[in-house]
Specification:
Elements lengths: L18 H13 L5 H10 L1 H10 L4 H6 L9 H10 L3 E3 L8 H4 L16 E4 L4 H5 L2 E5 L6 H16 L3 E4 L5 H11 L4 E4 L13 H10 L1 E4 L9 H14 L3 E3 L8 H10 L4 E3 L10 H8 L4 E2 L3 H8 L22 H9 L8 H8 L3 H13 L4 E3 L2 E3 L8
Parallel strand pairs: 3-4, 3-7, 4-5, 5-6, 7-8, 8-9
Antiparallel strand pairs: 1-2, 2-6, 10-11
Helix pairs in contact: 1-3, 1-5, 2-3, 8-9, 8-14, 11-12, 15-16, 15-17
Length: about 400
């Protein structure tokens, strides 16, 4: 006699999700390539368990039946759950308390049919995506990033992570990796969303990086174990990055960069889009400049600008950039006129200075006294001049 099936698989949300729900959603994830609004509608109407049963029997609309034709006859849900557990991953479902319901709500209002929410997500790591997404930024950009772009992505991500903003990206070469590493460098939260199964690492060169992310943050994917990455799957994955981030930041993008797909998804989902400018001579900044020029993205030049967009309303405001302080800052216009009239290589009597500045005797005396107090004027035997420049120690 076989052992009884546990009510809840280990690693799920505190024992609140029934095993049959996990199996149903795991089955649906494998049966139909995401995104599929017909499948989402079926689950919304009947619930995951009955939706899975209807799909097995073929009692679903023709469009969905065609999409599931190659896989619906084989139920690999149990094997997928076991393979994921062996890789340290768990299945996160909408029935979990930690499901990002609020970020994914935007899919319902999206004008494009390809912007459908995921049926479930495979998750690896201690982070809770619902909490992390509440204060987050998605950072994307070119794989063939320049040193400028890599430095910007790492610096912005580190600064934002230090301020409690979770950094989301796709773990690819270039900007993605720099963003993750920037957040990790300051022990900040970072989330990687993949286009392959939870038991696979892509790119393979980022095995160590993904292990570091999974140790403290979160690695997410909607593709079942064993799934290999593909060009279309990267594009599909991008909608999750766009939805989960409070805003999306494009650091570098070429004229035909795939990053522009994430930017388009973010716009369609109602997320604020930001872009970092670059040298006008750099082909890797053409996409960013076009996004700004066409008014699709706001221009940001500092991490503080990004924080103002994705942070707390009325709290995380970016102060105006502070220029270089000058000793004459804050002087009254007439006092400044007297300062400008002071000779640098000679000394003049007050009358000549007043005439040059166009200031009367009483105002001149007050101005010279203020300038002397500030160290901006020197008096020598009835004559005034600017202080002599002294060499440093």
């Amino acid at each position: 006699m076989s052992a009884p099936v546990p009510a809840v698989r280990p690693g799920t949300d505190a024992g609140t999700v029934p095993e049959e729900v996990l199996r149903a959603r795991a089955y649906l994830l494998r049966c139909v390539e995401p995104p599929n609004r017909h499948l989402v509608a079926l689950v919304d109407r009947y619930g995951p368990v009955e939706a899975a049963d209807r799909l097995r029997r073929g009692a679903v609309p023709d469009e969905l039946l065609r999409a599931a034709a190659a896989r619906r006859g084989t139920d690999r849900s149990e094997a997928d759950l076991e393979a994921a557990a062996a890789a340290g991953a768990r299945l996160l479902v909408p029935e979990d308390r930690g499901w990002p319901s609020w970020p994914f709500r935007s899919f319902a209002e999206a004008p494009r049919a390809d912007l459908a929410p995921p049926i479930a997500l495979w998750a690896r790591g201690p982070g809770e995506i619902a909490t992390l997404a509440d204060r987050s930024v998605t950072v994307v950009g070119s794989r063939a990033a320049t040193p400028y772009g890599l430095n910007v992505a790492a610096d912005f991500s580190a600064t934002l992570a230090r301020r409690g903003v979770a950094v989301l990206s796709g773990a690819a070469f270039g900007i993605d990796a720099a963003a993750h590493r920037g957040a990790l460098a300051v022990d900040g939260a970072t989330v990687a969303v993949l286009a392959c199964g939870p038991d696979r690492v892509y790119p393979a060169a980022h095995t160590g990086l993904l292990e570091r992310i999974a140790a403290t943050g979160l690695v997410l994917t909607e593709y079942p174990p064993g799934t290999i990455p593909g060009r279309l799957r990267f594009l599909v994955r991008n909608r999750l990055l766009a939805a989960l981030g409070v805003g999306t930041l494009v650091v570098e993008a070429g004229a035909r960069s795939g990053t522009k797909r994430t930017a388009a998804d973010a716009t369609a989902l109602g997320r604020p889009l930001m872009a970092v400018p670059g040298p006008v001579t750099s082909g890797m900044s053409v996409g960013c400049h076009e996004l700004v020029r066409s008014h699709q993205a706001g221009l940001v030049g500092r991490p503080e600008d990004v924080l103002e967009v994705v942070g707390r309303l009325g709290v995380d405001l970016a102060l105006p950039p502070q220029g270089e302080f000058r000793p004459t800052d804050g002087l009254d216009p007439r006092v400044l006129a007297v300062h400008d009239a002071l000779p640098a290589r000679a000394a003049w009597p007050p009358g000549r200075i007043g005439e040059a500045a166009g200031v009367g005797p009483d105002e001149l005396r007050a101005a010279l006294t203020e300038l002397e107090d500030r160290g901006l004027a020197e008096y020598h035997q009835g004559l005034w001049q600017r202080p002599a420049r002294r060499a440093g120690p």
